[in-house]
Specification:
Elements (H helix, E strand, L loop, with lengths): L1 H13 L4 H21 L3 E3 L4 H4 L3 E7 L15 H15 L4 E7 L3 E8 L2 H9 L18 H14 L5 E7 L21 E7 L5 E2 L6 E2 L3 H11 L3 E4 L5 H7 L3 H4 L8 E3 L1 H25 L7
Parallel strand pairs: 2-3, 2-5, 5-6, 6-9
Antiparallel strand pairs: 1-10, 3-4, 7-8
Helix pairs in contact: 1-2, 2-10, 4-5
Protein name: VWA domain-containing protein
Pfam families: VWA_2
Organism: Paenarthrobacter ureafaciens
């Protein structure tokens, strides 16, 4: 812009063109410069991270087996209540992403297919309840593996190369008569996430059940290793900022060329160019109107 001003000053002082033409030349040149600057996408880091999260698919697996009713989260809350709080925080931090919710107990169920509707996710999470004891017939901690595999593959077919995060929330207690199968998921297709553990080693009685449920961190760490994700125990005293830091933040940084949290300024320059060119168009319209022949009597 300084060069444009200098050029205009030189034309005014030393040029032989009429002042009207000089102003037009300066205006058009300034508009071109503004458009070139806008194409460079100027800005700075520090704004919200919605732009980065908009290019993410987030798959959330939540254990809803009877053991998640044990009240040893943050003192006396249920484990499932803790999972609900964390999912709500993750959805808020990753606003703009697409979310898929899968729950599992005796069987796995897709509660919500991939969608940016966080209100639907909140509603689905709010209605979750631990499986009633009378329906419990032994649950596997890896029963959601096949559904996760299918959903990951479908998302990649729809939008190849789109990063995917996986968050697994459970207590690791396997009550199935058979040992948990290995997750049939290719971990190379997962860009980040975390395995979240709820409960305590001492355990606590489950609601409406005459039995004690205990956290099995060994099983959860095994799942984390299979998914190539970090494991984090959730007691209710940790914030989600620390959780997302552990959840491979590089997946967020790589979703856009600008990175997360960038304030864009290109639109200001494009708007300035539009105003300059609009002024030129109006000037030409007035000039053309003045050239119209007058009415004859």
């Amino acid at each position: 812009m300084l060069l444009v001003l200098a050029f205009g000053t030189w034309l005014t002082l030393y040029g032989k063109q009429p002042k009207q033409e000089v102003r037009s030349t300066i205006t058009r040149t300034a508009a071109v410069v503004l458009l070139l600057l806008a194409a460079l996408r100027p800005g700075w880091a520090g704004a919200g991270g919605t732009t980065a999260a908009a290019d993410l698919d987030v798959f959330i697996l939540v254990d809803t087996s009877t053991s998640m009713s044990a009240e040893d989260y943050h003192g006396s809350e249920t484990r499932l209540a803790g999972a609900k709080q964390d999912v709500a925080s993750i959805a808020k931090e990753l606003a703009g992403a697409r979310f898929c919710l899968i729950t599992f107990d005796n069987q796995a169920t897709v509660r919500m297919p991939l969608s940016r509707d966080t209100t639907a996710l909140q509603t689905a999470m709010a209605t979750l309840q631990p499986q009633a004891p009378r329906f419990a017939a032994g649950s596997s901690i890896t029963s959601a593996g096949r559904l996760l595999k299918d959903r990951l593959a479908a998302a990649q077919m729809q939008q190849p190369g789109r990063p995917a995060l996986v968050f697994y929330a459970g207590d690791g207690e396997n009550t199935s008569a058979t040992p948990p199968e290995r997750l049939p998921v290719d971990a190379t297709g997962i860009n980040g996430g975390a395995v979240l553990g709820y409960g305590t080693a001492q355990g606590r009685r489950m609601k409406d059940v005459d039995g004690v449920s205990r956290l099995d961190e060994g099983a959860l760490r095994n799942i984390a290793a299979q998914l190539n994700l970090p494991y984090a125990h959730r007691s209710g005293d940790e914030g989600t900022a620390e959780l997302l830091t552990k959840a491979e933040p590089g997946a967020l940084a790589g979703t856009t060329e600008d990175g997360p949290g960038r304030a864009e300024l290109y639109w200001l320059m494009a708007f300035g160019a539009f105003l300059l060119l609009l002024h030129e168009l109006m000037r030409h319209a007035v000039s053309l109107r003045s050239l119209r022949p007058g009415r004859t009597q």
